UniProtKB/TrEMBL annotation:
UniProt KW keywords: Flavoprotein, FMN, Oxidoreductase
Lineage: Bacteria, Bacillati, Bacillota, Clostridia, Eubacteriales
Transcription regulation recorded as keyword: no
GO MF term list: nitronate monooxygenase activity
Pfam families (UniProt xref): NMO
Protein name according to UniProt: Probable nitronate monooxygenase
Record organism: Candidatus Avoscillospira stercorigallinarum
Length: 314
């Protein structure tokens, strides 16, 4: 069985995190992943602190395993969510879309392990200096907001730049991807898209169907003009947004086009107005399964791949 330092640090069975996807990663999904041996993560997104507290209680009512909360630092509710996390003494905090330095002392005093998502070596170094417990190096193959670097070049550079445990994310959807991440120096992985189609994920059936029917070229990146590129499935909305970026539409109008679009996809399955966030591995996902089964299958395959990795060496 694959066991790495991140398992010991967090008290988890398998070195796998479930991405803190906004509007998707609720308490039910996080509990299922944690109960299955990984680290389930509640996605705070743009939700207020009251919602996050409610989802924390859902997790704790369903499992006694470690779990986390992801804080989207650009959220207008970031301060109150940070306070809720400290009050609830959440075991693990992951962060995205910004620098969590202002909250580090508060979280660490509450006993939280802080594991920021980083998309560059410079951010990894900064998080090391401010006392993070580990970092998640996320490449641009992932769904949602993405950085410039792909996973393959990003992960080893981050591993070289810090002594902290590194979790690889972006473009990982099966045991082969997990094995590759370990070869690059990571001690764990974070998966988002793969868990979109687990049984316990409560997204709209149309969203799941779109992921299951996606091909290798089924995603598109939009938002580069605004400086916040996002990867999603190719839908009428995504194509229209991509076209609008190259028109005379103002930045304010372009920004307004995306407001509420993720919620419309997750809750209503609206392909005309909704943005269906998903990573490039969507084309590899072909069936719905329980979260625990996904985790077991991935790591069984990863073990087999790692055991056979030297067969070409003479």
């Amino acid at each position: 069985m694959i066991h790495t330092p991140i398992c010991d640090l967090l008290g988890i069975e398998y070195p796998i995190f479930q991405g803190g996807m906004a509007w998707v990663a609720d308490g039910k999904l996080a509990a299922a992943v944690s109960a299955g041996g990984g680290l389930g993560i509640i996605g705070a997104g743009n939700a207020p602190g009251s919602y996050v507290r409610e989802q924390i209680q859902v997790v704790r009512s369903m499992t006694d395993k470690p779990f986390g909360v992801n804080v989207m630092l650009m959220s207008p509710f970031a301060d109150e969510v940070a306070q809720v996390i400290a009050e609830e003494k959440v075991p693990v905090v992951t962060t995205g879309a910004g620098n969590p330095s202002k909250y580090m002392d508060q979280w660490k005093a509450a006993g939280c392990k802080v594991i920021p998502v980083v998309a560059s070596v410079s951010m990894a170094k900064l998080m090391t200096r401010v006392g993070a417990s580990a970092v998640i190096a996320e490449g641009g193959e992932s769904g949602g907001h993405i950085g410039e670097l792909a996973t393959l070049p990003l992960v080893p550079q981050v591993c070289d730049a810090t002594d902290l445990p590194v979790i690889a994310a972006g473009g990982i959807g099966d045991g082969r991807g997990v094995a590759a991440a370990f070869m690059l120096g990571a001690v764990g992985v974070q998966l988002g898209t793969r868990f979109l189609v687990c049984n316990e994920c409560s997204i709209h059936p149309t969203y799941k169907e779109k992921v299951l029917k996606a091909t290798d070229l089924g995603t598109i990146t939009t938002g580069k003009r605004l400086g916040h590129p996002v990867r999603s499935l190719k839908t009428p909305f995504a194509r229209n947004y991509a076209k609008a970026e190259y028109t005379q539409i103002s930045d304010e109008e372009l920004e307004a086009m995306g407001v509420g679009a993720l919620r419309l996809a997750v809750q209503e399955g609206d392909v005309q107005r909704g943005t269906f966030l998903a990573g490039e591995i969507a084309g590899m996902v072909n069936r719905e399964q329980p979260a625990a089964e996904i985790i077991r299958e991935i790591f069984t395959e990863a073990e087999q791949v790692l055991q056979g990795a030297t067969k070409w060496v003479r």
